[in-house]
Amino acid sequence: MVTTVKPNTSFDTLRREDLFRNPPKDKSAFPALLGAVKPHIESFNAITAEGGLLDLARQDIGVKLLGNKLSLRIDKIYVGKPKISERDKTTLRREILPAECRERHITYRGKLSVKLGLRINDGPWVSQDREVGNIPIMVRSNRCHLENLAPHDLVERKEESEELGGYFIVNGIEKLIRLLIVQRRNHPMAIIRPSFTGRGKSYTNMGIQIRCVRPDQSSQTNVLHYLNDGNVTFRFSWRKNEYLVPVIMIMKALVETNDREIFDGLLTTKDMENTFLTDRVELLLRTFKGYQLLTQKENLQHLGEKFRIVMGVSPDLSDVEVGREFLKKIALVHLEDPRDKYRLLLFMARKLYALAEGTCQADNPDAIQHQEVLLGGFLYGMIIKERAEEYLESIVREVQREVQRGNVLDFNNKEHRTRMFQRTSENIGKSLEYFISTGNLSSPSGLDLQQVSGFTIVAEKINFYRFISHFRMVHRGSFFAQLKTTTVRKLLPESWGFLCPVHTPDGSPCGLLNHLAHKCQVITAPSDVSSIRKTLVSLGVTSPATSPLPHSATLCVQLDGCIVGWCSPKLANVVADTLRFWKVEGSHGVPLDLEIGYVPISRCGQYPGIYLFSQQARMIRPVKYLPLDKEDLVGPFEQPYESQHMLNSIPQIFYPSLRT
């Protein structure tokens, strides 16, 4: 068969014309290119999906109380598709497309509204919808009119046939939220930083830092500081102010415990002969005696009394309730069970003492194994959450002012409620449009980020390669551009397959502005790890609730920052190898993209343990198995496979993450 090609017609053109006339089932002419914008679009879709990030954020905001008479909450947050009102017909709203926004130099935005719930005393909840502005909508997201359109449908709407989306249109300009490198979530890192010594007179340069991420993707960083006398303090930042609390106070406020239990939790039977550790742990417990706080209730009451003003809670709450709110909002927020928080604090203190003793080396925060990507959609949702919470607090403050003036408030009257809400109208959409337009973050809390500017860029269309590279770029952060050190810009060998070693600009952003490798992917949805705990128990891992732990169980097994078991160093190697094999095999409920990090015991190396990660924002890369002989392939229990069928059943390509 001979194919006739017209003059001046390339094979690429023929392929594009064929795809235009006969679009594939996924309505995507270039599925490979869609992989570049996939993290941007899917992270934005996660905000507005059913049970998505906005619903999780609404639950985390909770109920705002005014005395014991008025309760306020957000029942629902709606994000509508872009519409526009005609000037001569203000009541008529029609759909608007991105092409019209570019031509008219306006913003492609949809209506944001919230359903407020209000209750008087113990009466029924009353709901009322309120519009809080119009927010920019990402092109080709689930709130865009171009979602899932075929190439010929895109052309009919004045778009290019290979329109990818993943950006916003603000005042007719295409803007993109750049990907940022941040610390890996829910993993305690041992850090040596000279700035730690400026926290106080006896503070050293050693600490354990953990960036805890809530289910709605907002984060809170906690740090344990090591002092010269062996004490440990708990540091956190709240509304751009730093606070220091004795770590023993946090431990005793979380659970009902005593000094003996804390002593046994920090030291194993093997450590009893180590005078360096025993002396410092004993001094840590003796120093806290000066507070004269013995029970859990007394510690909660003390925390609530000291942080009542800081937390901004209702004055009618008791000190104990304020203390519980403090632990929920600040201390290891990625965990819900106080007992899990208590166990992780013990682990962090034990790792800090190992760092001070020299048996554990500091982790490298510039290494990619301790980093993840802050996706633009997740950052967008964090801003919406903070603005929505401020809106609730503004209503509470307005009601307080009315009460102080002696005015009568009738919230059972709908018209009266409407007038009250109109006085506290919050234009959340305006602040989000300012964020996308300027790239500057105006936030009272700082959102646990090190920078306040440089979050967005213009998606330049100088040429197609320049345009598509914007979606693959990852920036270390504008904070690091001012540093004099070169370690942050160093290209480490473990970045192979994750970051491109060539594609970085010259000048000041060199080494700070990198690009994802061709095959690197960013996870935007958590994996199903519901059966991992049962799988670990079947492999012989000891439950963390076991008391006392076996003498040989010295290695910790963590899943997304939660201690799920302990095992011996010999068993840890077997557990890690077995999980890796089951992951590739697709059995025992181990997901394919589960990250398995096994750190064996070494002399002055990284702190040992098995660390499992399954949540969003991780970078993964494809890996191929090398062909092995049947007699060389040994199972996790040192039993060779007997059939060639089992050897052939191993998938040839899988997606493990960094440490596998």
From TrEMBL:
Entry keywords, A to Z: DNA-directed RNA polymerase, Metal-binding, Nucleotidyltransferase, Nucleus, Transcription, Transferase, Zinc, Zinc-finger
Molecular-function annotations in GO: DNA binding; DNA-directed RNA polymerase activity; ribonucleoside binding; zinc ion binding
GO cellular component, one term: nucleus
Domain DNA-directed RNA polymerase I subunit RPA2: 564-621
GO biological process, one term: DNA-templated transcription
Major enzyme class: transferase
Pfam families, per database record: RNA_pol_Rpa2_4, RNA_pol_Rpb2_1, RNA_pol_Rpb2_2, RNA_pol_Rpb2_3
Compartment(s): Nucleus
Domain RNA polymerase beta subunit protrusion: residue ranges: 36-412
Residues in RNA polymerase Rpb2 domain copies: 184-373, 458-522
Main localization of the protein described in the UniProt heading: nucleus
EC annotation from Swiss-Prot or TrEMBL: 2.7.7.6
Entry's family note: Belongs to the RNA polymerase beta chain family.
Protein name: DNA-directed RNA polymerase
